[in-house]
Amino acid sequence: MTSVLNRAPDAAPKRRGGGGLPARLEVIMLSLLLADERTGYDVLKWIERNGAFAGYRTQASQIYRQFTRMQAEGWVESTVQTRDRGPDANVYRITPSGEVALEAWIDSPYEPSPRPLDPDFQVRLMFSARRGPAKALELVRIELEYRRRNEDYRKGVDLDLLPRGLSLEQQQWHADFTMLSSERGHYMAQTLIAWLESAEVRLRSMTERM
């Protein structure tokens, strides 16, 4: 088996999204490479096993596109390992520039999503954990403050959805159904808030012990 190092090209294409920070999938990939070098197949298998917990799913083609893009940025480099049996494999590793990019993402401002179960918070929490409990506590407090401030399920009937000429009984049905529907989101938000409150207490204790 032989190895050939592939380095980033001299000119990097422009990235989508701007800001120079890794996208969500790139954060996952860079974090995995920070732990150990991996092939694209290794990354795919990890996401298949853990993607639901991280709130993320992807395909092999997307992983290899992101590797190409990150190589252009100089965030990763790869070694081609020739094999006696089976196709050659590209083994990727993170570069110092990739570590800087990952750290910049961890330090970038976190803005909670209006959706209570948006995967961005889970990805932030999971891949910022290397900074220790203080960083995790900061994220939990930001998320908790936002959820408390925006939790309000007492909403009225959406008049745009009501057909004309409804009887009083039908109007009452729509009012009751609106309350029933909004309670679903209310219970989801309340469950998340309860977990965040518990996590805040535990992380604060961990922080004080360190």
| Structural class by sheet pairing and helices | alpha+beta
Distance between the termini: 46 Å
Question: Helicity level, as a percent range?
Answer: 55-70%
Overall tally of domains: 2
Order of helices and strands: EHEHHEEHHHH
CATH class of the largest domain: Mainly Alpha
**What's the CATH architecture name of the largest domain?**
Orthogonal Bundle
In DSSP terms, counting alpha (H) and pi (I) runs of 4 or more, how many helices?
A: 7
Q: How is the quaternary structure best described?
A: single chain
- CATH evolutionary superfamily of the largest domain: Winged helix-like DNA-binding domain superfamily/Winged helix DNA-binding domain
Assign an overall shape: extended
CATH level-3 fold name of the largest domain: Arc Repressor Mutant, subunit A
Low-confidence stretches: 1-18
CA radius of gyration: 23 Å
What's the β-strand tally? 4
Mean pLDDT equals: 84
Question: How is the main sheet built?
Answer: 4 strands, antiparallel
Q: Assess the beta-strand content as a share of residues.
A: 5-15%
- What's the arrangement of strands in the largest beta sheet? 1-3-4-2
Tell me briefly what this model is.
This protein has 210 residues and is of the alpha+beta class.
Description of the molecule:
The chain is α+β, with helices and mostly antiparallel strands. The protein has two domains: 3-108, Orthogonal Bundle (Arc Repressor Mutant, subunit A); 131-209. It contains seven helices and four strands, in the order βαβααββαααα. The chain has a four-stranded antiparallel β-sheet. Helix 1 (24-35) packs across helix 4 and helix 2 crosses helix 3 (60-73). It is extended and about 75 Å long. Residues 1-18 have low confidence and may be disordered.
